[in-house]
Amino acid sequence: MTSAHYHRIIDYLRRIIDATQWENHVFTVGGCCRDEILGHEIKDVDLAVDLPGGGIGFAQWLYEKGLAVKEPVTFPSFGTAMLRLSEFHDDEIEIVQTRAEKYTDSTRRDPTVVFGPIEADCRRRDLTINALYYDISRGCLLDILGCSVDDIHNRIIRTPDAPDATFDDDPVRILRAVRLSARYGWEIEPATFEAMRRNAERLKIIRPERMRQEFDKMLVGPNPARAMDLLRLCGALPYIMPELVPLIGLQQSKVHGGDAWEFTLNVLDKVPADSVLRLAALLHDVAKPVCRHIGSRGAVRFSGHERRSKPLINTAMRRMHYDRDVVDKVIFIVVNHNVTKTWGPQAAGMTDCQLRRLQYKCVTTLRFDRLMALIEADNLSYDPPMPEQVPAIRRRSDELRRNGEALFTFRRQLTVQQIRRLKNLPKNADLQPFVDFLLSLAIENPHMPQRSVIERLKHFNPKSTR
To answer: Which of 14, 16, 268, 464 is deepest in the core (most CB within 10 A)?
Structure first.
């Protein structure tokens, strides 16, 4: 949202809490305050209420006054509520009580939340740049630490409290520091970074969903490669995706221009900000460590690494609790990312049959476009790069679509019953060879007349193809 829209919400809240128990107790907090100073679009409006139970209490009060779209969603163990105001129904607002929190033992996976005054709330926040409050009733920005605004202007990432205490209380703050450092290109204060390294092991106690939330934001952010390398440098990577660690230092052939980790980061930075595509870029070479061998002439080879990536990707992503659908989309792209390598730098070796077969495998143009994006990023990361292959493939694919010769959707010209009658097959016969044959005919010529299909099928003998 724009700054103007943000202030319309603030002005509205100021009017409705005037002369109520909430006056002087409601603040916007965190990212919205930071982003306004930076002149960035404001993504979320978060409110803090410095009264015991104030987060849920204020949300419930708004609902009972008829000012909310519907009853707020509450999270009592965190003292948090979510709602949409009727006046601003497109904007979800999170409301919390000012609080203190801590992992009360070494194995607890969620922080214990208790009420605390605004000064304590400020100290327990993840970073100084997020420890800003806007007093809605008084209309003024509060920099309680006295350094938050300066740290924004000076491009510094650091903690409001002693960094070891901050990261020990909630290790997810390590990931937030990485994410914001990568997003803005700001440096992490050395003492803060060293504390991140010392406390990285604490990430073991964090629920996968919480880590994935930060991880996904890093991936679709403006500098994903920087974020991933910061995870490596601070020691957090083994607790998020240990499958990637063996890529570090894994030497490749000269065309890759670095080790497997550096090459992966090069590819990652070259794909669009699509979460599925960036996960595929990050994991596209994950099986190289288990496939590496030296060829007869001393060249480094990774034969079949794209196929052998499937179980590794499945394990890594399921551990992070990604949906099955997302996992399958990533696996498809990775398993097929080498399919065009033999077509040549300008795709001169590509045939229409090969392209139609690839279209058929992709099923949708979105999946095809994602696959092409990864292949292009891979090609551009080589030394020397191959910038012309994918544009040539895309041009020909578009031509096939315009001519009605693409094969993203395939409908057999003959039904199962027609195949059985034509070939005189019993009901329990395996029809797959015949279905595959019909597909091969469509790949050869999508406009083949039905009579020609029938004639070809009459003479087809699956045994002769084995």
So the answer is: 268
- Cα separation of 405 and 191, whole Å? 61
Q: How many CB atoms lie within 10 A of CB 39?
A: 7
Q: Is 96 helix (H, G, I), strand (E, B) or coil?
A: strand
DSSP 76-93: GGGTEEEEEETTEEEEEE
Q: What is the pLDDT at residue 105? A: 54
Residue 224 to residue 34: CA distance in whole angstroms = 21
Average pLDDT over residues 162-167: 94
pLDDT one-digit tens code per residue, 430-462 = 989 999 999 999 999 999 999 999 999 988 888
Handedness of CA 66, 67, 70, 73 (dihedral sign): negative
Looking up tokens 């991936």 gives: 219
b/e map 441-457, b = 16+ CB within 10 Å: bbbeebeeeeeebeeeb
Beta strands 26-29; 45-49: pairing state: antiparallel
Q: How far apart are the C-alpha atoms of 19 and 293, rounded to whole Å?
A: 75
Contacts 24+ apart (CB under 8 A), 375-378: 375/337, 375/339, 375/340, 376/270, 377/267, 377/268, 377/270, 377/271, 377/281, 378/267, 378/284, 378/337
Q: Is the pTM here over 0.85, yes or no?
A: yes
User: Is beta strand 300-301 parallel, antiparallel or unpaired with respect to 293-294?
Assistant: antiparallel
pLDDT digits (tens, 9 = 90+) for 240-298: 999 999 999 998 877 777 799 999 999 999 999 999 999 999 999 999 998 888 776 76
The residue count of the chain comes to 466
User: Given the structure tokens 């709602």, which residue do they identify?
Assistant: 83
Task: Provide the 10 A C-beta neighbour count for residue 87.
Answer: 14
